[in-house]
Write a structure and sequence with these properties.
- With about 650 residues, the protein is an alpha/beta fold.
- The chain has 20 helices and 32 strands.
- Helix 18 links the parallel strand 31 and strand 32.
- Helix 5 packs across helix 6, helix 5 crosses helix 9 and helix 7 packs across helix 8.
- The structure holds adenosine-5'-monophosphate-propyl ester.
- The site of adenosine-5'-monophosphate-propyl ester has 21 residues, from helix 11, strand 20, strand 26 and strand 27.
Length: about 650
């Protein structure tokens, strides 16, 4: 134990959080407001399902907004900066409160109540945040769908969530180009098997849109009608559902990651204190998007729960110039910043003087997550800004960091190449995938957690407890353990290193994609017989998707022009159905895929060949000619 008076080390805090799980989290629960106190801290009577803070009543919107009104009503809460439409607007906590209540009143007038789902398919505009917080206020369950997803992806999420309402906008804008949302939404609602009764459109005046009578409502009109209406907080039992967020895995169907209310709020409040070290009254800036888990946890809920102002940035890191992110840091005196390695690699290609132009003295640390942070990029940005750069590793499923350093507990040095050490609450192990036994230090294993998972982690897969257990808790033999599906290794000092996924998930510019989803999309094209998609290392985006396609009629790809045209068509199919983020960088045509004799596509060998590595053990291959074709296709493309 630590000497009396000395603060406990991270290792000690971690050990205590596992050994005295309930008292540890009961203490953290004091970081938020409860309308009624909880009784039991943890119910783990039905492993692996964990229920936290039973009987406690609270509300995320209250904790993020209302509770700050007494002390900081007139301080900034939501700072909207758009370099796309050239708008800069600050909402104080009082103003944010007003707008959230108005949105809540509009939702209620459209029949949305406690437990109903609301799909939020929106660009990075304040109304998107109002919509999320309004759902939280009235106990509706939001499901934000990333604006980069197209009609088919949106339709499958609508079918799974069965929303009472979809909130959307006429259009978004990316790098100066208007992206119409409404036609994509209309197409999705046509595809969906059970469309919602109501659609609420925030009209930004960016693109004309067609109103479907009786279904589509204009937000500005309804807001006017509910300007001064009061909508009280709906106090929810801690384990009610706050939101679902779809994420990709091994199958073609995304899973609805379901989160609770109380555990979620406590976990985020604790992470703001111990990991991000953000103080009330300061400004937080995350460059993520509300469509991803980082946007949920660290644009919307985390900073606001901590009483910080949060920046909602609609724009790219390069427009109007590569200094824009740092200009925003200076302008709003940002103290904590969160971004992704890809954004930094993009900036690294620009003139370094952009970094020196702005006063970054308010900034204490830059947090990076979502994909592996390579050492050259980490060193470059740490030197360029002269601030600690803190890698952190986690997942949509966990909602907050699994590995990082926690300077609110102990000032341990980050180590280049490692996202850090096990965070409090996670009973982290590296397990042998064949035996389920723990591997030793400096040995590779599957990064896994012994349940119960801590507060804030997913409760289950939306309406699919079996899938939750089957997907996450059934892959390690001989023991009940949550698999992250990442390989990892731990050094003698407890620092972990992430070595890549164990499944078919790829990571393109920090965006998590299932190769199966892309394959299913390509296969929907009438010319395609079968295909394989793999993630290939890329110096800028981390990974890119590369596709190998077998045509029903190979003569359709007989010459270079035909191949080019078909490649274009296939990419357009992905853009239209899945969204441009899933688009492969190349589509190669072959007449067969390398498969085992039992018919399994040898994706790892394909990936190895694409990365000019040894394709590994090929004794099970059915026809070695398939690999030769692949080599030739890649050689011709090189
Ligand atoms: O493979 C790991 C990678 O991204 C996956 C989770 O992605 P997502 O659900 O989108 O959540 C992102 C939340 C930050 C992980 O399973 N990953 C995430 N962070 C890191 C990472 N890989 C290496 N280093 C990281 N810091």
């Amino acid at each position: 134990m630590a000497a009396q008076g000395a603060a406990p080390s991270l290792k000690e805090v971690h050990e205590r959080s596992i050994r005295e799980r309930e008292s540890f989290w009961a203490e953290q629960a004091q970081l938020i407001d409860w309308n009624e106190p909880f009784g039991q801290v943890l119910d783990y009577s039905r492993p692996p399902f964990a229920r936290w803070f039973l009987g406690g009543r609270t509300n995320l919107c209250h904790n993020a907004v209302d509770r700050h009104l007494a002390a900081r009503a007139h301080q900034p809460a939501l700072i909207y900066e758009s370099t796309e439409v050239d708008v800069s607007r600050v909402y104080t906590f009082a103003e944010l409160h007003r707008e959230v209540v108005r949105m809540a009143a509009v939702m209620r007038s459209l029949g949305v109540g406690r437990g109903d789902r609301v799909i939020v398919y929106m660009p990075m505009i304040p109304e998107a945040v109002f919509a999320m917080l309004a759902c939280a206020r009235i106990g509706a369950i939001h499901s934000v769908v990333f604006g980069g997803f197209a009609s088919h992806s949106l339709a499958s999420r609508i079918d799974d969530a069965e929303p009472a309402l979809v909130v959307s906008a006429d259009a978004g804008s990316r790098a100066g180009k208007v992206i119409e949302y409404k036609p994509l939404l209309d197409a999705a609602l046509q595809l969906a098997s059970r469309a919602p009764d109501k659609v609420l459109i925030v009209d930004r005046g960016l693109a004309p849109w067609e109103r479907v009578a009786g279904r589509d409502e204009d937000y500005a009109t309804l807001r006017e009608r509910h300007l001064d209406e009061d909508v009280p907080i709906e106090w929810l039992e801690s384990n009610e559902v706050s939101y679902t967020l779809y994420t990709s895995g091994t199958t073609g169907t995304p899973k609805g990651v379901q989160r609770d209310v109380g555990g979620h709020a406590v976990a985020l409040a604790a992470s703001m204190k111990y990991i991000f070290c953000g103080n009330a009254g300061e400004t937080y800036f995350s460059t993520s998007d509300i469509g991803w888990v980082v946007g949920h946890s660290y644009i919307v809920y985390g900073p606001l729960i901590a009483g910080m102002a949060t920046i909602l940035y609609e724009g790219t890191p390069l427009r109007p110039d590569p200094g824009i992110l740092w200009r925003l840091v200076e302008k709003h005196r940002v103290s904590v910043m969160f971004s992704a390695p890809t954004a930094i690699r993009v900036l690294k290609k620009q003139d370094p003087s952009w970094l020196a132009k702005y006063d970054l003295s308010s900034l204490r640390a830059l947090f990076l997550a979502g994909e592996p942070l390579d050492e050259p990029t980490a060193r470059w940005i740490a030197e360029a800004i002269g601030k600690p750069v803190i890698d952190n590793y986690w997942q949509t499923e966990t909602g907050w960091p699994i590995l990082t350093v926690a300077h609110g507990i102990e000032k341990t040095e980050p180590r280049f190449g490692s996202p850090g050490m096990a965070m409090y609450g996670y009973d982290l192990r590296l397990l042998d995938e064949r035996t389920g036994e723990e591997v030793g230090n400096n040995e590779k294993g599957v990064v896994a957690m012994i349940p119960p998972l801590p507060p804030g982690c997913m409760q289950t897969v939306w309406r699919n407890d079996d899938r939750f257990v089957q997907t996450y808790f059934s892959t390690v033999p001989g023991r009940l353990a949550y698999s992250t599906f990442d390989w990892g290794i731990r050094d003698d000092d407890g620092y972990y290193f992430i070595l890549g996924r164990t499944d078919d998930v790829i990571n393109v510019a920090g965006h998590r994609l299932g190769t199966r989803e892309i394959e299913e999309t390509l296969s929907s094209h009438p010319a395609v017989a079968e295909c394989a998609v793999v993630g290939v290392a890329d110096s800028l985006k981390g990974q890119v998707a590369t596709a190998f396609v077998v045509l029903k009629d190979p003569s359709k790809a007989a010459d270079a022009n035909a191949r080019l045209a078909l490649e274009g068509e296939l990419m357009a199919t992905v853009d239209k159905r899945l969204g441009a983020i899933g688009r492969p960088n190349r589509v190669h045509f072959v007449t067969m895929l390398p498969k085992t004799r039992s018919g399994k596509v040898l994706r790892r060998s394909i990936q190895a060949l694409c990365e000019r590595r040894d394709p590994g053990d090929l004794t099970t291959i059915e026809d070695p000619g398939a690999l030769e074709q692949l080599r030739q296709a890649l050689g011709a493309a090189a």
